[in-house]
Amino acid sequence: MTDVLFDILVVLLAAKLAAEVAERLRFPTVVGEILAGIVVGPSVLGLVGGDATLRVLGEIGVILLLLEVGLQMNLAGLGSVGRASLAVAVIGIAAPMAAGAGVAAAFGHDRNTALFLGAALCATSVGITARVFSDLRVLGRAEARTVLGAAVADDVLGLVILTVVVRLVSEGSVSVLAVAGIVALAVGFLVVTAVFGTRFAPPLFSFVHRRARSAGTLVALALAFALAFAELAEVARLAPIVGAFVAGLALSGSDQSDRIRRELAPVGHLFIPVFFLQIGIDAEIGAFARPAVLGIAGALLAVGVAGKLVAALGATRSAGDRWLIGLGMLPRGEVGLIFATIGLREGVLTENLYAALLVVVLATTLAAPPLLRARLVRL
User: Fold this and answer.
1) Calpha distance 239→233 (Å, rounded)
2) Exposure letters 299-334 (e unless 16+ CB within 10 A, then b)
3) 124 by DSSP, 3-state: which?
């Protein structure tokens, strides 16, 4: 058996075993999957490493997840909480970024390092929260729409911040024209794909349903549609999962949306857990125990959590429970890792600061699902 096949075997078995244990202990399955990734990864057993094939499978998994989430929502519902989502996104970026930069300065780091640490704290991972809302079947709630809308806005704003910070660090300045071009490209993608998708996708899928003779045609076309939108999102320098989410929103207006969801579900059960196991596999637990890491990691975690909870103040009463919205904005996930990796690559972050950010990413990713579940039970 090749290394790749062995890795896939271990990951699939670990994912399903972890999901079973988590369900029996009444924990969100995503927490079990991340912990299983830590156990089978280099930090504990060392059965699997950072295999490129697993990463591809994980990327397909998170695209499937956001496609499914989009299919269960609609643009009208998302639009009804549009202002609240934007307010939550803006506060959710400004508060943790300012606080994170302040912590870095208090620990004696220079301006560039402070900017990067603050920027890394502002990003929200939609994948974690979307999975929890989906598993608990509450995507129809106003809070879920608010958080997902905020996550899309967060991605656009986060892209701008990342570009500005990298330019400031590498070149010392950034032009207003460059920032305006980035914003125009990102917003243009969202508008064009949303309008095109909602207008042309429903009749296209109805036509295919009437004409297709082979089994699985609709679900294959839906996945291809999501992958195309994900690729376009990457061209617009947005996260591919934003494109998959927009594709799902477009398909939600089709009379075939229920059938697509039913046929996608088994595929999702196979691929989606791989993404969350990969988060655990990538975690370097050994680096977290260093005293130089723990001090600043604790401070960054405190202000990072507080900043996202404060973001919920931007939500209106019609947007739902503010605590639930704040908790939904907590996970940093893969987005925080991207910021941290770029900072390390640019030479702005040391190995200890990089490890401190990994602590924040892992802690918020693991803490958010049970906190969300506990809050939902009380509502």
Assistant:
1) 6
2) bbbebbbebbbbbbebbeeebbbbbbbbbbbbbbbb
3) coil
Q: How do residues 324-358 score in pLDDT, each as one tens digit?
A: 888 888 887 666 777 777 787 778 888 888 888 88
Residue 150 has which token pair?
């905020």
Token pair belonging to 209: 């349903």
Q: What is the residue whose two structure tokens read 């062995």?
A: 6
Instruction: Put residue 341 in one of left, alpha, beta given phi > 0 → left and psi -120 to 50 → alpha.
Output: alpha
Q: Token digits for 370? A: 């049970």
Tell me the CA distances in angstroms from 134 to 76, 145, 258, one per residue in order: 19, 12, 15
Taking alpha carbons only, the member of 195, 193, 196, 217 closest to residue 205 is: 217
CA 116/CA 169 separation, integer angstroms: 9
Residue 154: other Cβ atoms inside 10 A: 29
CA 48 to chain centre: 23
Residue 230 sits at the vertex; the CA angle it makes with 228 and 233, to the nearest 5 degrees, is 110
**DSSP symbol at 172:** S
- Local structure of 282: helix, strand or coil: helix
**Dist. CA 14–CA 378, nearest whole Å:** 31
One DSSP character per residue, 49-82 reads ---HHHHHHHHHHHHHHHHHHHHT--HHHHHTTH
Q: Which 8-state DSSP code applies to residue 349?
A: S
Domains in the chain: boundaries: 66-267+287-378
Give pLDDT tens digits for 240-286: 888 898 899 899 888 888 899 999 999 999 999 998 898 888 777 77
CB-CB contact of 148 with 70 (8 Å): no
Nearest CA to 315 out of 306, 307, 304, 326 is that of 326
Q: Give the predicted TM-score (pTM) of the model.
A: 0.78
Sign of the four-CA dihedral 327, 328, 329, 331: positive
Token pair 């059965």: residue:
47
* Helices and strands in the chain: count of H runs, count of E runs: 17, 0
> Thinking of the domain 66-267+287-378, which architecture would CATH place it in?
Up-down Bundle (1.20)
**For the chain, how are helix, strand and coil distributed in percent, rounded to 5?**
80, 0, 20
CA distance 2 to 8: 10
CA distance 119 to 158: 8
